[in-house]
Write a structure and sequence with these properties.
The complex is a heterodimer. By secondary structure, chain A is an alpha+beta fold. Helix content of chain A is 55%, strand content 18%. Chain A has helices spanning 2-21, 23-61, 90-102, 157-161, 171-177, 221-228, 247-261, 278-320, 322-330, 335-371, 381-407, 411-416; strands at residues 65-69, 108-124, 127-137, 149-152, 166-169, 187-190, 193-201, 206-207, 211-212, 216-220, 234-241, 273-275. Chain A is elongated, with a radius of gyration of 33 Å. Chain B has a 6-stranded mixed beta sheet, with helices on both faces. Chain B has a 4-stranded antiparallel beta sheet with strand order 2-1-4-5, covered by helices on one side. The chains are: A alpha+beta, B alpha/beta.
């Protein structure tokens, strides 16, 4: 046992000496692995980055919120199934809340009716912003919002019940209309009506780059319905659940409750959809897998080329040092010893290449992050472990054949080799 | 220190127990179509503390004999016992162990590792023998001191003269306290003065009780030994003491 340790220590020392003695050659050989590991790790960071960006977007929707709507979020060519469903009404939210309160150990917390529409222009003095998404809701909506308030507050239940003309602005809206000063206490004009700003939401970013949560504006439901009407836009009921790990149970309960509210008969299909962020997840997973698969192929190819380079150079090394192998065998090196020596040499080159590749990836990530903060690249400790394992595996795979051929050399022939 | 002029005046030390017993050994090589009979039935006994020279012109089977004695190769037929164990039937790794423990090689071309210093070179057989680090260091240093290189232990081969390199190689051969030291043309790459110094070192080692086998084609080198075996055409032509 000790002998193997001594032999391995010796082999590592010899491998390092060998790399030092042939700097140029080792560097060129390692280049293949450097590129391979960079490909692996950059792909890893990109996939992870996309994943994290996606997670962040989903978190904005609220992991603990179920959306009861007429339409499902993801539809195919089956729109005709949904088009004749009844629209969601505020009274249904009230009835849902009554059922939730009456249900012992309910999975659901409370329901809020929210009515929203996009493409609205908002003005303040000489400044204006278009493309704002306006939501009308009761004051309860403040308990569902995932964004914090940078300034001010949510409107109260009293303010919303009395349809007061107050509003809460998303950060981009506030920024555009009141650049460099506080929006709270100011007045904005929507549909020709003045609304007093009572709160501003913190910046949230965009959802998958399509829809910005910062372009929104909230107002009491009464005011909304008065000026935007009840038939346009998208009315929905948002239901907060108690335990976000029990989404499926909550969903089942809500389905039952909603059917009761609408007095649907057994066997009749639901005439509403319950949407959760999972719908997007399911849609996005195959895309992510596609990226990963393509990435795996490309990186695999890069590593394969690198491995062949190392195999080649190890064969050369065995050839060059045939006499040394003969001497070592004469001095008592066993087959395993010789094999280990060349394997360790190949692995060492790979690990050196891997470390360089990893360092380059790290610098690239750092550079990209400072230049384009929004670009999804995420460096992680797991990446270090994976790339080191991949390096070692590449070294073993590429060093195996040359090492085996070295170990099988006949000492008599090897000693005579010039 | 030069070798004595008359062989008769040199002391012959009493021999010890049997180390090598070779009986009717043959070795065939296949060279393309042709079969070469390198050894055609050789029998030989070597005892502890002998000083032996193996001689013969090229093609006489001298190299094959050396490879056989050094356990680098196994005979095609016949019996070969090293310290009582049957070498002829051994596998590669078993032979490697025998070479490591029982045989110290000295080569014509020294065969030192170019990028390792003298100490590291001498330590190599101890690494393969599984000797712990500190002991390895001490023994390698001691072996280098024994061959007169105590002040050169951290020199690399390219910083040493030919004679010094061969001394490192001899220290490496000695370090594992082998049963035999097997030298293949040990002075072949040295000038005659340095060669004489190396032969004097062998004489010293012999007097300290080592068993030495020198393979050479030079009569003057062979006459340093106490017994000469002359090979011809794969057979032992003569085997006797030096007069």
């Amino acid at each position: 046992m000790n002998r193997i340790i001594y032999e391995m220590t010796e082999s590592i020392r010899m491998a390092m000496a060998q790399i030092r003695a042939n700097k140029m050659r080792s560097a060129l050989t390692a280049l293949g692995v450097v590129i391979g590991i960079m490909a692996v790790t950059l792909m890893g960071t990109a996939i992870r980055g996309v994943d994290i960006g996606f997670q962040n977007s989903l978190a904005m929707l609220g992991e603990d919120v179920l959306h009861v709507e007429k339409w499902p979020w993801i539809t195919g060519d089956d729109w005709w199934k949904y088009v004749n469903r009844p629209i969601i009404k505020p009274a249904e939210a009230v009835r849902l809340n009554r059922i939730i309160e009456a249900t012992p150990n309910s999975e659901l917390d409370f329901a809020v009716f929210v009515h929203g529409r996009g493409g609205v222009s908002v003005k303040a003095g000489a400044l204006s912003i278009s493309g704002v998404v306006v939501f009308g809701s009761t004051g309860d909506y403040g308990r569902i919002l995932t964004a914090d308030f940078t300034d001010g507050r949510m409107y109260s239940e009293t303010e919303s019940d009395s349809a007061q003309q107050v509003t809460v602005l998303g950060s981009d809206v506030a920024q555009a209309l009141f650049p460099g000063r506080s929006a709270v206490g100011q007045v904005v004009v929507v549909k020709g009506q003045p609304f007093r700003v009572i709160g501003v939401l913190a910046k949230q970013g965009s959802f998958l780059g399509i829809f910005s949560f910062d372009d929104q504006m909230l107002m009491p439901l009464g005011a909304y319905r008065k000026y935007f009407g009840i038939r346009n836009g998208n009315p929905e009921i948002q239901v907060k659940i108690k335990d976000k790990t029990r989404v499926a149970e909550a969903r089942d309960e809500l389905t039952g409750d909603m059917r009761r509210v609408r007095a649907q008969l057994p066997g009749e299909p639901d005439n509403f959809s319950i949407n959760t962020q999972d719908a997007f997840k399911e849609k996005l997973d195959p895309i992510k897998q596609g990226i990963a698969l393509a990435g795996l192929f490309v990186t695999g190819l890069a590593l394969f080329v690198g491995a062949i380079g190392i195999m080649n150079i190890t064969f050369v090394s065995v050839r060059e040092r045939t006499k040394e192998i003969g001497t070592r065998k004469a001095l008592g090196a066993r087959r395993l010893t010789i094999r280990l020596q060349f394997l360790i040499e190949a692995v060492s080159i790979c690990v050196v290449g891997g470390v360089i590749g990893l360092a380059l990836t790290f610098l690239t990530c750092l550079g990209v992050k400072t230049a384009f903060p929004a670009f999804p690249l995420e460096f992680s400790a797991g990446l270090v472990v994976i790339s080191m394992l991949v390096s070692v595996a590449t070294g073993i795979l590429s060093g195996y054949l040359p090492a085996a051929s070295a170990s099988k050399l006949d000492p008599v022939v090897a000693l005579r080799y010039e | 220190m030069t070798p004595p002029a008359f062989a008769e005046s040199r002391p012959v030390r009493p021999v010890g127990p049997l180390v090598i017993a070779i009986e009717n050994v043959t070795k065939l090589y296949q060279m393309g179509e042709e079969t070469i009979h390198a050894l055609r039935g050789v029998s030989l006994e070597i005892r502890r503390n002998e000083y032996l020279a193996v001689m013969g012109p090229s093609g006489s089977g001298k190299s094959t004999m050396m490879n056989m004695l050094g356990c680098l190769d196994t005979p095609t037929s016949g019996r070969y016992e090293f310290n009582g164990s049957d070498v002829a039937a051994m596998l590669d790794d078993e032979l490697a162990e025998i070479r490591n423990r029982e045989i110290g090689f000295v080569f014509q071309t020294f065969n030192l590792l170019p990028r390792s210093d003298a100490l590291r070179n001498v330590e190599l057989p101890l690494i393969y023998g599984g000797v712990p680090r500190h002991e390895r260091h001490d023994r390698a240093r001691k072996a280098l001191e024994d061959v007169g290189l105590g002040d050169r232990i951290h020199h690399r081969p390219n910083e040493l003269s030919g004679g010094q390199r061969q001394r490192v190689a001899i220290a490496r051969a000695l370090v594992n306290r082998p049963s035999i030291i097997l030298a293949d043309e040990p002075t072949g790459n040295l000038d005659s003065k340095t060669g004489d110094e190396i032969m004097a070192l062998f004489e010293e080692l012999y007097e300290k009780g080592n068993t030495i086998i020198v393979v050479t084609h030079e009569e003057s080198i062979a006459r340093n030994a106490r017994r000469i075996i002359r090979l011809h055409d794969g057979l032992i032509e003569s085997d006797g003491p030096v007069y």
